[in-house]
Design a protein that fits this description.
Length: about 450
C-alpha cells in the first residue's frame, strides 16, 4: 500500500479541515482519532439513537458544511486509535482500542490536532465524588441527549459555563446556579467591542443568557466557589458573592471550568526532528472552533505545499479570531485580582490522580535550593498520575512560582516533559508489540 503522505491525529474541526485541504492536493491522507466518530469537542456526536443537543444555528451550519466536505473527501479514517507519540525514528505510535494492539505508522508529514483541555483551579474539596469538569458534563449531554441528573451547580470562569447552563436548561434540568468569577456586565467596553467585532459570538451569548433568564437560573457574577463540602444530603458549595458574603448552595454535582488551554502535553515542539510535524487548531493555540477550522486548513495547505513543492499564503482569518478571543478574555476577566492559588489551605489537593496537596508542595519547595519542575515531579509525584499533568501541571508550576519568586518560574512543560507515551497505555499492548524494535504496520 502507498506510503502515508499526511497523517492527521484528531478528527475535530482542525483535523477535519486539515484532511480536506491535504486531500485536495491528491495526497494519501489518513486520520487517526480516539473516538469512533469525527467532530471533536464542539461537534461531539450523540451515541446510538440519543437525541442531538440543540446548538446555535450558526454553529449547526458550520458543522453541517464541515462534515459534508469531510464525508465527500473520502479520507481514510482510523477511529478508536489513541495517539501515544512519535518515537525517535519518526514512527507514530498508537493504541488500537478496537483490538487492544499497539500500532506503529510511518508518514511523510504529521498534523497534530489534539484540541484543548479544560483548565481547572483547585479548591478545597474539588476532589470529592460528584465534582467534574463543566466540559465533561457538556460532552455527556452531547453524547446522551440528556442533562445530568439532580441539582447541578456550575462554577468557575468563562463563557463555556453559560453555554453548558443553557444546554442543561433546554434539556429540562437547569443548573441551580452559575458561579462566575468574572463580571461581563461590568466590562462595558469589552462588551461593545465584542458586539462590534464578532457579532455572531455576541448573538450566541445573548441566546444563552435568554435561556438562563427564561428558566430563572441565577448567574452570580464576580463570585467564587471557595470550597466544597459533603454531608448526608450531597455536596455543599461555599460561595463568596460579589458583596463578599459567604453563601451555601446544595448540589448533587458540581461542574468546574476555568477556561481552556492547548492540549500539547508531552508533545515535542513542531518540527523538532524526523518527519514534518505541524500542530493545528486548539492544540496549537486555543482560539475556538472557527479558528480551529481556519488553522486546520492552513496546516493542510502547509503540509501539501511542503510535499508538493509549491508555496501557499497563510489565511488572515486567524488574526481576527485571535482578537475576538482577546476581547472575550477581557470580558470575562476575574473580578478578584489576588493570586488564585495563594490562599489555598495546605490540605487542598493539587494533583488529584496522585492525591498530592498544597502543603506537600510547600514542603518540597521550601529547601534552600528549591526544586525544578522535573524534581517536583520525581520527588513528589505531582503530575505523575494517569492524567499526566493535564489537570495539575499548570497549577503546580504556578504555585511553585508563587512560593519561590527567587527562582526561575517553572512551566507546566517542566513537569510533564516531552516524551511518549503521552497517554497511559496497557503494558500488555506494549509487550505484545515488541516496541523498541519498532516496525511499521501497513494500514
Ligand atoms: C470540554 C470542551 C468544551 C467545549 N465546548 C465548546 C462550546 O460549547 N462551544 C464552542 O464554541 N467551543 C467549545 N469548545 C472549544 C471548541 O471545542 C474548540 O475550539 C474546537 O473544537 C477546537 O477544534 P480542534 O479540532 O482544535 O480540537 P477538538 O475539537 O478538541 O478535537 C480534537 C480531537 O482530537 C482527538 N484526540 C485528542 N487526543 C487524542 C489522542 N491522544 N489520540 C487520538 N485522538 C485524540 C479528540 O478525541 C478530538 O476528536 C470546547 C472545548 C472543550 C475542551
Amino acid at each position: 500500500m502507498a506510503e502515508i503522505d499526511v497523517l492527521i491525529v484528531g478528527a475535530g474541526p482542525a483535523g477535519m479541515a486539515a484532511a480536506i485541504e491535504a486531500g485536495k492536493a491528491g495526497l494519501r491522507v489518513v486520520v487517526l482519532e480516539q473516538h469512533q466518530t469525527p467532530g471533536g469537542a464542539i461537534f461531539r456526536q450523540a451515541i446510538a439513537d440519543a437525541p442531538a443537543v440543540r446548538i446555535p444555528p450558526r454553529v449547526a451550519a458550520i458543522r453541517h458544511e464541515l462534515s459534508a466536505a469531510f464525508a465527500a473527501s473520502r479520507i481514510e479514517t482510523r477511529y478508536g486509535h489513541v495517539f501515544l507519540g512519535i518515537d525517535s525514528d519518526g514512527f507514530v505510535l498508537a493504541e488500537d482500542r478496537n483490538t487492544g494492539a499497539f500500532v506503529t505508522l510511518k508518514a511523510k508529514s504529521i498534523v497534530l490536532a489534539l484540541g484543548a483541555v479544560e483548565k481547572i483551579l483547585p479548591r478545597p474539596g474539588w476532589e470529592r465524588a460528584g465534582v467534574s469538569t463543566a466540559g465533561g458534563l457538556q460532552v455527556m449531554m452531547k453524547e446522551t441527549g440528556r442533562a445530568p441528573a439532580g441539582r447541578v451547580l456550575l462554577a468557575g470562569n468563562g463563557p463555556l459555563l453559560v453555554a453548558v447552563a443553557a444546554q442543561m436548561a433546554a434539556l429540562g434540568n437547569p443548573p441551580v446556579a452559575v458561579i462566575e468569577a468574572g463580571d461581563p456586565f461590568r466590562r462595558f467596553a469589552a462588551g461593545v467591542a465584542l458586539a462590534a467585532f464578532h457579532q455572531h459570538l455576541a448573538v450566541e451569548a445573548f441566546g444563552y443568557l435568554r435561556e438562563l433568564r427564561r428558566h430563572r437560573v441565577e448567574w452570580q457574577r464576580g463570585a467564587t466557589l471557595q470550597r466544597i463540602e459533603r454531608d448526608g444530603e450531597g455536596l455543599i458549595a461555599c460561595v463568596r458573592n460579589s458583596a463578599g458574603e459567604i453563601k451555601f448552595i446544595r448540589a448533587d454535582r458540581i461542574g468546574l471550568h476555568d477556561g481552556i488551554r492547548s492540549n500539547e502535553f508531552g508533545l515535542a515542539p513542531a518540527n523538532a526532528r524526523g518527519p514534518l510535524v505541524v500542530h493545528a487548531g486548539d492544540c496549537r493555540e486555543a482560539l475556538g472552533a472557527e479558528a480551529a477550522i481556519a488553522d486546520g486548513r492552513a496546516a493542510g495547505m502547509r503540509v501539501a505545499a511542503a510535499l508538493r513543492g509549491f508555496t501557499h499564503a497563510e489565511p488572515r482569518e486567524l488574526t481576527r479570531l485571535r482578537q475576538a478571543e482577546a476581547i472575550l478574555s477581557r470580558l470575562f476577566a476575574p473580578v478578584e485580582t489576588a493570586h488564585p492559588l495563594a490562599a489555598l489551605p495546605d490540605d487542598t489537593v493539587l494533583c488529584r490522580c496522585e492525591n498530592r496537596n498544597v502543603g506537600e508542595l510547600k514542603a518540597l519547595c521550601g529547601g534552600a535550593d528549591g526544586l525544578t519542575g522535573r524534581e517536583v515531579k520525581h520527588h513528589g509525584r505531582f503530575a505523575m498520575g494517569s492524567c499526566q499533568g493535564r489537570f495539575c501541571a499548570d497549577n503546580t508550576a504556578a504555585l511553585m512560582a508563587h512560593l519561590r519568586p527567587d527562582l526561575p518560574a517553572p512551566q507546566a512543560r517542566d513537569l510533564t516533559g516531552t516524551r511518549w507515551p503521552i497517554r497511559p497505555v496497557p503494558i500488555a499492548a506494549l509487550a505484545a508489540s515488541g516496541v523498541g524494535q519498532a516496525k511499521e504496520q501497513e494500514i
